[in-house]
Amino acid sequence: MSTPNSATISAFIHAQVQAWNQRDKKAFLAAYRKIAPGKLTIEYVGRSAPADGWAVLEQMWENTNAIVDIEEVLLSVNGSEAACHNINHMPSRDLKIHTVELYAFDGDDVNVRYFINNN
Q1: How many domains does the chain have?
Q2: Per the domain annotation, does 1 fall within a domain?
Q3: By residue range, what is the domain housing residue 11?
């Protein structure tokens, strides 16, 4: 697969957030499989080294999907990279966590970096 264009990248970002909020794990993982048929790495910046993205997604789903709703605040796609500002709402804890998520697309491979602001 060649590196996706901006429309494809935007569609992926929106699709994975929609699937997350609808608690549709199959659609969530399918969005990632479609955009990243090669290597997927995910890093929680300042907390962990880049890791196998599939394992990270599984752990993220199991630990937080039932309690977190994502609000997309801003998406900017430039070339083969995207930056997102999201608010992760946790109503059961009366908590909102802002994240900046960076996505880099390189052919079949995708690298994701999460910056999490707990303040």
Answers
A1: 1
A2: no
A3: 6-117
- Express each pLDDT in 11-44 by its tens digit: 999 999 999 999 999 999 999 999 999 999 999 9
CA distances from 59 to 19, 29, 41, 63, 76 (A): 16, 12, 14, 6, 27
**Measuring CA to CA, how many Å separate 108 from each of 32, 39, 79, 81, 98?**
11, 7, 15, 14, 28
CA dist., res. 112 & res. 25, Å (int):
19
Give per-10-residue mean pLDDT for the chain (119 aa): 90 98 98 96 93 96 96 97 97 92 96 88
Q: Cα angle vertex 92, ends 12, 42, to 5°?
A: 35
CB 101 within 8 A of CB 112: yes
